[in-house]
Amino acid sequence: MKQIGGFQSWCLGVTLQLIIAAVLHQGFATVAPPTAAPYKDPGRPEKGNYQVNGTNGTACLLASMGLQLNITFNSVSQNKTVQDVVNIQPNVTKYSGSCDPDNATLHLSMDAEKTNLIFFFTLNTTSNKYHLSEVSLSAAWPDMKEPFSTRNRSLNYLQGTLGYSYLCREEQTLIVDQYLSINIFQVQVQPFGLTKDEFGAAEECQLDEDDMLIPIIVGAALAGLVLIVLLAYLIGRKRSHAGYQTI
Ligand SMILES: *[C@@H]1O[C@H](CO)[C@@H](O)[C@H](O)[C@H]1NC(C)=O
Ligand SMILES: *[C@@H]1O[C@H](CO)[C@@H](O)[C@H](O)[C@H]1NC(C)=O
Ligand SMILES: *[C@@H]1O[C@H](CO)[C@@H](O)[C@H](O)[C@H]1NC(C)=O
Ligand SMILES: *[C@@H]1O[C@H](CO)[C@@H](O)[C@H](O)[C@H]1NC(C)=O
Ligand SMILES: *[C@@H]1O[C@H](CO)[C@@H](O)[C@H](O)[C@H]1NC(C)=O
Ligand SMILES: *[C@@H]1O[C@H](CO)[C@@H](O)[C@H](O)[C@H]1NC(C)=O
Ligand SMILES: *[C@@H]1O[C@H](CO)[C@@H](O)[C@H](O)[C@H]1NC(C)=O
Ligand SMILES: *[C@@H]1O[C@H](CO)[C@@H](O)[C@H](O)[C@H]1NC(C)=O
């Protein structure tokens, strides 16, 4: 009891010190730069629905997803490299794009064109499989010492089959390079082979299937257990019957 009390007062002391430090820190913010993790969790991003139309006016690319940028850049206010996690807000995002027989783009822009995110999909017309092959981001935020710009043309994410949509309920992280990764939530996308203004049948991602596997394994194990108990009971009953008969 005494030990716990001691621990509690130690905690209280530490907390007080932290509060005092925080208060002091407010006053001397310009003197002592913060050492803690610079980014604050922005929460789950809202889901956006994006549609690119072909020349005949119907949808040729459909995407529905929540997007979060995890970006490393040189901060003016903190005078050092920081990592920031930023949600893309669908209600202030403009979208456009293009559709060609074997490639398609989705172009998202925010902050009056100061942030531009482009997804480039490729279709292999031999295997009839598509994938996200390129991502580029340019951003000129007030806190950036120099404009951010990156592009990776050798990616292989969101693989699907022509005529089907790619679906993933689990969160996925698309690593673009060492300065940028994109967290993508509840994605359904189809960059090729749309017939109406709606998604084709969904092909579920591996992550979701793995998720489904666990309950199946647990269920099978339980069924096995029930069977063993049942067998044991039946055998036991037979033995005791045999016992009675010999007496
Ligand atoms: C529109 O064009 C696409 C190819 O770009 C085609 O697959 C689709 O059937 C066309 N839709 C209509 C209504 O003509
Ligand atoms: C952002 O990326 C870094 C690695 O570059 C990782 O440690 C961190 O967990 C990521 N944050 C989020 C919210 O994805
Ligand atoms: C920023 O940091 C560098 C060293 O990391 C230092 O030389 C420079 O004076 C700092 N600039 C400001 C404005 O604090
Ligand atoms: C966009 O949505 C967010 C909440 O998700 C809200 O805070 C913001 O005011 C909205 N902006 C506009 C321009 O509607
Ligand atoms: C495509 O058409 C739909 C419905 O007609 C519209 O909501 C959407 O904004 C169009 N997409 C683009 C990129 O203009
Ligand atoms: C996309 O496809 C069109 C038509 O096939 C082609 O002209 C264009 O060069 C392609 N774009 C890229 C970046 O491969
Ligand atoms: C398309 O797929 C075929 C069969 O899987 C493969 O041999 C070929 O290299 C692929 N083409 C491209 C450009 O990736
Ligand atoms: C681009 O992505 C590929 C595949 O994820 C990776 O191997 C490569 O290092 C990336 N390029 C850069 C410049 O980071």
Walk me through this protein's architecture.
It contains 2 helices and 13 strands, in the order αβββββββββββββα. The chain has helices at 2-27, 206-246, and strands spanning 47-53, 59-75, 80-87, 94-99, 103-110, 115-124, 129-139, 148-152, 157-161, 165-168, 172-177, 180-190, 202-204. The strands form 2 sheets. Strands 1, 2, 3, 10, 11, 12 and 13 form a 7-stranded mixed sheet that branches. It starts with a helix and ends with a helix. Bound molecules: 2-acetamido-2-deoxy-beta-D-glucopyranose (NAG) (8 copies).
Largest sheet descriptor = 7 strands, mixed
Q: Supply the CATH architecture of the largest domain.
A: Beta Barrel
Give the termini separation.
63 Å
Element order, helices and strands? HEEEEEEEEEEEEEH
Report the CATH topology name of the largest domain: Porin
Provide the descriptors you would attach to this structure in a database record.
extended, 247 residues, 6-stranded antiparallel beta sheet, disordered N terminus, 7-stranded mixed beta sheet, Porin, binds 2-acetamido-2-deoxy-beta-D-glucopyranose, 13 strands, alpha+beta, 27% helix, single chain
Short description:
Residues 45-194 form the Lysosome-associated membrane glycoprotein 2-like luminal domain. This protein has 2 helices and 13 strands, in the order αβββββββββββββα.
